[in-house]
Amino acid sequence: MSEQHTYRVIVRGVWDGLSEDSRARLLAEADDHGLTAMTFTEEGSLAYDRVLKHFSWRFTVVSDAADGDEMAAAIAEDRAESALTAQGHGFRDLRSTVTDLDTMKINYKGGRR
What we know:
By secondary structure, the chain is of the alpha+beta class. The chain has helices at about 20-30, 70-85, and strands spanning about 5-15, 45-50, 55-65, 90-100. The protein is built from two helices and four strands. A four-stranded antiparallel beta sheet has the order 2-3-1-4, with helices on one face. The N and C termini lie far apart (about 35 Å). InterPro entries: DUF6204 (IPR045778).
């Protein structure tokens, strides 16, 4: 059995060619997708503002450690692309930032006893 790692992945992109319907739905839901929506989940949490230029989607991805950051990014981008396509929203320029939580170093400061 291979070792599993947990990754936090931020997928960023640009809205592109939004239909009037997509624009209206996104604007109606904008308050639900602001700063408070920025959490990492397996399903992902979408964040954007009313300008409707850029968006980010935060995912938690669990995958084989041997596959590394690249696989975690590919999985998260696929999830984002599938969800956006299913909702009928136009987008482009997906890119990801990946953090491997299992190899992340934690610096403790202060008087820990």
